[in-house]
Specification:
Largest sheet: 10 strands, antiparallel
Strand content: 35-45%
Structural class: mainly beta
Distance between the termini: 57 Å
Shape: globular
Order of helices and strands: EHEEEHHEEEEHEEEEEEEEEEEEEEEEEE
Number of helices: 4
Length: 344
């Protein structure tokens, strides 16, 4: 009775919790932007969410078969399993299997977890941008399931988990490009005024500030207010916490690709059933897919930064095949079309 979707009910909206960003120890009220219904937009309470968690065992809404399918994970062509099912992540905590999912929007933070074998669930709802939902889920689980746990409790602070075993100060970290080990996204660490270091990420610049030994914070990016960025360095790269996600970026040497015109042409992907056209303008290589054109910046040897991912190319010689590398997408192959081919 206290759950609805979207912003269509102003009476109910007037009763929701206020949402806050936290910066320099101060609370700042955030405007509630229109929600993306589908990926988000559910307004609810802990009590109502608890009723939904019970559905994992009763199947009252949708049936038990739907709930079972939510927890199924696909098998990749190479036989490996991923950990994400139908909207639910398969995880484990201290030796117990659990299903979980987190969410965040404009200063709100939430997470739910279900332990199928123990018939136990937890939901945490927070209205401040720096709230760590995972430690709270873990703490509640310890209280109720501690006697069933099979492993020791690890350090629970989401930020402190960033700290590498052999961490270094940001001033000792190499300057230049860093590449996401999983998603092929790039960022740069550059020198700022004095002895400061600046994070260049997603076309914005943010000064890194020490907040705990070995842990540095950068202010939220413009499109995502309330999502401060936390990083920690070692000699090989950096760990990042951003919006509840953890990523590993390895330092890479800058690459000078030379003559860019050898990459110019139209490419076709059988798997994506899509064209990609590369062209050079004013000394910059551009990739166009459909109506969208984006500049490509050199990353590590044989790769360009491609949006929030990478475009693998032959480092030398003719470029007859490209591969798109993004978070959740590996090795999407595009092959050069001859000039006379349709679409070229």
């Amino acid at each position: 009775t206290s759950t609805f979707i979207g912003d269509a009910d102003p009476v109910r909206l007037s009763g929701i919790a206020a949402n806050y960003a936290v910066a320099n120890g101060q609370f700042h009220s955030l405007p509630t932007a229109p929600v993306a219904v589908g990926a988000g937009g559910v307004r609810t309470t802990a009590d109502d969410f608890a009723r939904w968690l019970e559905n994992f065992w009763t199947g009252r809404a949708g049936g038990k078969d739907v709930m079972r399918k939510m927890a199924e994970v696909p098998k990749l062509p190479n036989g490996a399993l991923v950990d994400y099912g139908g909207g639910i992540t398969l995880a484990a905590y201290r030796g117990l299997d659990r299903l979980e999912h987190g969410g965040s929007w404009d200063g709100f933070r939430s997470k739910m977890a279900v332990y199928p074998a123990e018939h136990f669930g937890v939901v945490v709802l927070c209205n401040r941008s720096d709230a760590g939902t995972t430690p709270r889920i873990d703490d509640v689980s310890d209280v109720y399931l501690g006697g069933l746990m099979k492993g020791p409790k690890a350090e629970s602070s989401e930020v402190l988990q960033l700290r590498p075993l052999k961490g270094i100060a940001v001033e000792e970290a190499p300057l230049g490009a860093y590449r996401d080990k999983v998603g092929a996204e790039y960022l740069r660490i550059v020198a700022g005024p004095g002895d400061t270091r600046v994070l260049e990420y997603r076309n914005e610049r943010r000064t890194l500030k020490l907040v705990e030994p070995g842990i540095y914070r950068a202010d939220a990016l413009t499109p995502f207010p309330g999502f401060d960025i936390y990083v920690a360095f070692d000699a090989r790269g950096l760990n990042m916490s951003y919006g509840g996600d953890y990523d590993r970026f390895d330092h890479v040497e800058d690459w000078a690709p030379g003559d860019l015109t050898r990459y110019a042409g139209t490419y076709w992907s059988d798997e994506a059933q899509a064209h990609m056209t590369l062209s050079v303008k004013d000394g910059v290589l551009y990739a166009q897919m459909g109506a969208r054109s984006a500049p490509l910046k050199p990353g590590r040897r044989g790769e360009f930064a491609f949006g929030r991912g990478g475009l693998e190319v032959p480092a030398e010689g003719p470029a007859d095949e490209l591969k798109v590398e993004l978070y959740g997408l590996r090795g999407m192959v595009y092959r050069r079309l001859p000039p006379s081919a349709p679409g070229a």
